[in-house]
Amino acid sequence: MSSNCLLGRLQANGGVFVSGTGQGGHVIPIDSDVLEVEEFVLALPRDLGDTVRLFYLPPYLTHDQAAKKLSISKSTLYRRIDGVHVLFNAEIFLGALPRVS
Hints:
single chain; mainly alpha; 5 helices; two-stranded antiparallel ribbon
């Protein structure tokens, strides 16, 4: 577990407090699975990391908007996401990233 990344620091503090629309709020625990995914994304080459962030994280762009923001075609966006899935599965199931050229 790395305390250098945001989720590592949140996990060390027991989670993150989120205020609700009603009374009070609640703590969202940050577990090692979430931390592992964040560390994986941070270790990706910049183009793949940027693709993952625009594809999966807020502000939740459409695929067309994400591709436009990255200056790539939608098919390239999908190829990058498919490639990241392969790399992630290799990391999780094999414990090491393959070289991709």
